[in-house]
Amino acid sequence: MNQASEDCAIVRQFWPKLKTYYQLHPTNCCLPDRFGQVRIMCFQDRVRQLTLEGVTSEVLKQVMQLDGVRVLIITNSELVEPLPDEIGKLPLTYLSIIRSNITGSLPSSFGNLSSLQVLNMMDTTLTGPLPQELGNLKMLSSLHLADNPGIIVDNRVDWTIAKWLARLELAFLLNGSSTGIRVSILLGIAIVLVTIIAIHIYVCLKHPKKTESDPLPLFADQTVAANENHDGMKESASLLHSHTKQYSTF
User: Fold this and answer.
1) Alpha carbon distance 108, 119 (integer Å)
2) Burial class (CB in 10 A: 0-12, 13-18, 19+), 137
3) Cα 184 to Cα 153: distance, rounded to the nearest angstrom
4) pLDDT means per 10 residues in the chain (250 residues)?
5) pTM of the prediction?
6) Under 8 Å CB-to-CB from 70, ≥6 apart: which residues?
7) Cβ-based neighbours of 64, under 8 Å, separated by 6 or more
8) CB-side neighbour CA atoms (13 Å) of 39
9) What span, in angstroms and rounded, lies between the C-alpha atoms of 91 and 162?
10) Which backbone phi and psi does 206 adopt, to 5 degrees?
């Protein structure tokens, strides 16, 4: 059995537990069903993308066994407990969990998702502060946290979180219920900007630019010019003396 068959075997275990009308292909879970619908995408003999509806806690634990998944989309789930720490072990680049009743805060294991580029957690019942470990997500470029009044960022803003927030695009999809997040994001960006300005000022004071040229070379040039004029005057006087001496002989 190849890896794709092993992945499909896991999918077939939890698929009947989903509340969805999509049906798996009878022989290969990576192929469209009889209606042409595709909810699973495979690449290089691995399940790489999953789009699931009606996920339960039991199903999510089985999904964690698919260690090749890069894109995970979960909508209208029936999760009523915190996300498992095992989610941080997946090589995810895109994670979207929306319209879900998951509880608690984001697990600190999210900081291990080093390849994550998009995090979409809109319309959930998450609570508590964002974990500091999110500052490790250097590839993250898009964050969506709309309709999450329970999520907060401490107004003191940890430095790691501040750097992480400043790296993100300024197109955050936040609504009025996320005022605390918006204020903290702006504060985090302000901290980074102030730090950059302070460093620039320090460098300028440490290594000031010369506004005027050194007067010594100019003085030296003037001395050389004066010496040249003096020599020219001596030569002219010598010539005048010789002519005068000639005329005096006559």
Assistant:
1) 14
2) buried
3) 6
4) 77 87 82 76 88 89 94 87 91 93 88 92 86 85 82 54 54 42 63 81 71 49 50 54 49
5) 0.64
6) 48, 49, 91, 92, 93, 94, 115
7) 84, 86, 87, 89, 90
8) 21
9) 25
10) -75, -35
